[in-house]
């Protein structure tokens, strides 16, 4: 007589009951709270709770611009029981500690959030620096690469200064020039690849975002005033930034197309961050360092009998660009960009009285 086979046990649930995946907003709120706790615990006094040390300005450092951290004060004088002592005021948090932040895999990006103050005296201003960013071409969705901007909004940031290294589409730009971004071309966005795709995050902004004037005019004016106070060895211009998803550098034909569309610069970041910052109501100032010149000329024709092979090969190599060259070009002008941003922060603070 055969013994009947017992029925299989009920399958285990894939997730424990009553556990729900946090929404992006909830995740951003949790990360913002963690950052505030880390900063408050590291500060020498309780003034953070009074709002004095809450950062209203944030800076995003692009490729090779991690040296912007040198703009921060390393210590400040504080009165304690009648004595004056030097206390540390710079707080560094690796992205690996921050839920939702991604450690970028591109060289030249430090992947560290830094809190500190810029300036001195009445112009001393609390600032957050995102030293490094993740990119779409690394395989991350835009919701991930722009997540830090959501956190900045919840931290109370009102102004974002976004930097990058970019190729030049404008024949009048030279390597090492500094260009203020006054508009952008987002081909990926026009094709439907937007960081705002999906259900709208009503806690941050409206469903249909106007980007007519995404780059704040008042901040651009202040930047020119700030530049007038700088060394001014390099040229400061304004132009249109074209966003390419990467990681390939643009072809000659793509360079000509973007130039014909009105682009002056081309790069693989910034625009998604700008969109999310504006969605959250933050003001945006964007600035690029020209690190290479994109080649406009068509390639030599293989059928041309008058062009020798070695001349053709040399012409083809002239248009190549490497990330190593980009980082090297950035280093030549990093100090100038840092000086510009420090003076810009001081002007913003003097208007808004955002002082520590």
From TrEMBL:
Q: Where is this region: Disordered?
A: 1-27
Q: Which InterPro entries does UniProt cross-reference here?
A: Nucleoside_phosphorylase_d, Nucleoside_phosphorylase_sf, Purine_phosphorylase
The transmembrane segments are none
| Composition bias type Polar residues, residue spans | 18-27
Q: Which GO terms describe its molecular function?
A: purine-nucleoside phosphorylase activity
Known EC number:
2.4.2.1
Tell me the Gene3D superfamilies matching this sequence: Nucleoside phosphorylase domain
Entry GO CC: cytoplasm
- Which pathway does it serve? Purine metabolism; purine nucleoside salvage
Highest rank taxon of the organism: Eukaryota
CDD domains given in the database record: PNP-EcPNPII_like (cd09009)
SUPFAM superfamilies linked to this entry: Purine and uridine phosphorylases
Q: Name one GO biological process term.
A: nucleoside metabolic process
According to the UniProt entry, which residue ranges have a biased composition of type Pro residues?
Answer: 1-16
Family per record: Belongs to the PNP/MTAP phosphorylase family.
User: Know the name of this protein?
Assistant: purine-nucleoside phosphorylase
């Amino acid at each position: 007589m055969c013994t009947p086979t017992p029925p299989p046990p009920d399958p285990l649930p894939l997730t424990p009951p009553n556990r729900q995946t946090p929404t992006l907003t909830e995740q951003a709120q949790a990360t913002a709270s963690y950052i505030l706790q880390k900063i408050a615990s590291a500060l020498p006094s309780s003034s953070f709770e009074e709002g004095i040390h809450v950062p209203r300005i944030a800076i995003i450092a692009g490729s090779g611009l991690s040296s912007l951290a040198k703009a921060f004060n390393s210590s400040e004088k504080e009165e304690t029981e009648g004595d004056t002592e030097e206390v540390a005021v710079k707080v560094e948090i690796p992205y690996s500690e921050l839920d939702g932040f991604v450690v970028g895999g591109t060289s030249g990006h430090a992947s560290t959030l830094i809190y500190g103050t810029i300036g001195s005296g009445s112009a001393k201003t609390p600032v957050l620096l995102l030293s490094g960013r993740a990119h779409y071409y690394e395989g991350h969705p835009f919701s991930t690469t722009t997540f830090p901007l959501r956190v900045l909004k919840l931290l109370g940031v009102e102004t974002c200064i976004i930097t990058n290294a970019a190729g030049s589409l404008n024949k009048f730009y030279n390597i090492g020039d500094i260009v203020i971004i006054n508009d952008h071309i987002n081909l990926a966005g026009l094709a439907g690849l937007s960081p705002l795709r999906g259900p709208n995050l009503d806690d941050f902004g409206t469903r249909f975002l106007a980007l007519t004037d995404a780059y704040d005019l008042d901040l651009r004016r202040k930047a020119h005033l700030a530049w007038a106070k700088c060394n001014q060895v390099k040229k400061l211009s304004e132009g249109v930034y074209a966003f390419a998803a990467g990681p390939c550098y643009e072809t000659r034909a793509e360079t000509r197309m973007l130039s014909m569309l009105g682009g002056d610069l081309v790069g693989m970041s910034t625009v998604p961050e700008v969109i999310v910052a504006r969605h959250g109501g933050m003001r945006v100032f964007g600035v690029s360092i020209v690190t290479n010149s994109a080649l406009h000329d068509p390639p030599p024709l293989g059928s041309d009998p008058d062009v020798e092979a070695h001349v053709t090969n040399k012409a083809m190599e002239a248009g190549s660009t490497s990330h190593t060259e980009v980082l090297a070009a950035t280093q030549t002008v990093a100090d100038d960009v840092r000086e510009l941003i420090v003076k810009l922060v001081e002007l913003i603070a003097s208007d808004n009285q955002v002082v520590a």
